[in-house]
Amino acid sequence: MRPGGRQGAGTSQLIRRDLAAYAFLIPWAAGLILLVVAPLGWSLYLSFTDYDLLSSPRWIGPANYLELFTEDDRFVHSILITGGYVLVAVPLQLGAALAAALLLAKERRGKGLYRSLFYLPSLLAASVAVSITWRAMFDYGGPVNGVLGWFGVSERAWINDPSTVIWTIVALEVWRFGAPMVIFLAGLQQIPGELYEAAALDGAGRLRKFVSVTVPMLSPIVFFNLLLGIIGAFQTFAPAQLVGDGNGGPADSTLFYALNLYQQGFDHHRMGYASAMAWLMLIALAVVAAFLFRGSRRWVHYGDNT
């Protein structure tokens, strides 16, 4: 066979292989376009319209965005509530997750059972049933008041007090530390034992080993959990809807951003306005993520720069 014939056959095989690869990519590409790109484009269009879910969208330009920043006091309040919640709940959750991971990383009998029990709240806490149960726990006559009564603390409705209801939701978020705990556990198991041995030879105690070895080696895991935790906390909805009174109360103390967005879209039938809020959340999360990535250069240590 002539060389040209062999080259032509090889080229046809490459083409067939590429076509097969593209054929397998078609379902993924179709899903990306239909389920991600198209909805994003439609919501961006709606954010510049007046749309009440019943009639056709009416183009109004940037009026929704202008109203958000100049006329809507509840929008600003929801940002403050959500921002404060993120600043408090996320670090507390990561601290609890790391503490549990350090305890469960040690070899002991039944460690698999303990790990499963600690992880279980992450599977349940986002559900409607758990949010309702959490509300009942902190209400009058609930278990929390019953336990505190043993120590002489007077009974109170934690969920009806604007100064305490937000802390019940923070407690629920901290209780969901199972997912970051598992990731911390995986990171702890990847730290070489030689590093701890070298630190021990230098006279380092437990605290010094934790600060000088564990924390730097876990810094990429901390960054990953921090980023996911912030994104998830910004989107908190079910606890705000069900632990509070469902309308952001009492006294708008549980008016989280996602709850305010839902109310604008489905309670007040202002879907164009809600779409503008959704895009502002997307932009805010992108800015926060960019800031974290830029700042991570100073404190996140990878294998090639430790």
TrEMBL record:
<keyword id="KW-0813">Transport</keyword>
<dbReference type="InterPro" id="IPR051393">
    <property type="entry name" value="ABC_transporter_permease"/>
</dbReference>
<comment type="similarity">
    <text>Belongs to the binding-protein-dependent transport system permease family.</text>
</comment>
<feature type="transmembrane region" description="Helical">
    <location>
        <begin position="210"/>
        <end position="234"/>
    </location>
</feature>
<keyword id="KW-0812">Transmembrane</keyword>
<feature type="transmembrane region" description="Helical">
    <location>
        <begin position="75"/>
        <end position="105"/>
    </location>
</feature>
<feature type="transmembrane region" description="Helical">
    <location>
        <begin position="21"/>
        <end position="45"/>
    </location>
</feature>
<dbReference type="InterPro" id="IPR000515">
    <property type="entry name" value="MetI-like"/>
</dbReference>
<feature type="transmembrane region" description="Helical">
    <location>
        <begin position="117"/>
        <end position="137"/>
    </location>
</feature>
<feature type="transmembrane region" description="Helical">
    <location>
        <begin position="271"/>
        <end position="293"/>
    </location>
</feature>
<dbReference type="Pfam" id="PF00528">
    <property type="entry name" value="BPD_transp_1"/>
</dbReference>
<keyword id="KW-1133">Transmembrane helix</keyword>
<protein>
    <submittedName>
        <fullName>Sugar ABC transporter permease</fullName>
    </submittedName>
</protein>
<keyword id="KW-0472">Membrane</keyword>
<keyword id="KW-1003">Cell membrane</keyword>
<dbReference type="InterPro" id="IPR035906">
    <property type="entry name" value="MetI-like_sf"/>
</dbReference>
<feature type="domain" description="ABC transmembrane type-1">
    <location>
        <begin position="75"/>
        <end position="292"/>
    </location>
</feature>
<dbReference type="GO" id="GO:0055085">
    <property type="term" value="P:transmembrane transport"/>
</dbReference>
<feature type="transmembrane region" description="Helical">
    <location>
        <begin position="165"/>
        <end position="189"/>
    </location>
</feature>
<dbReference type="GO" id="GO:0005886">
    <property type="term" value="C:plasma membrane"/>
</dbReference>
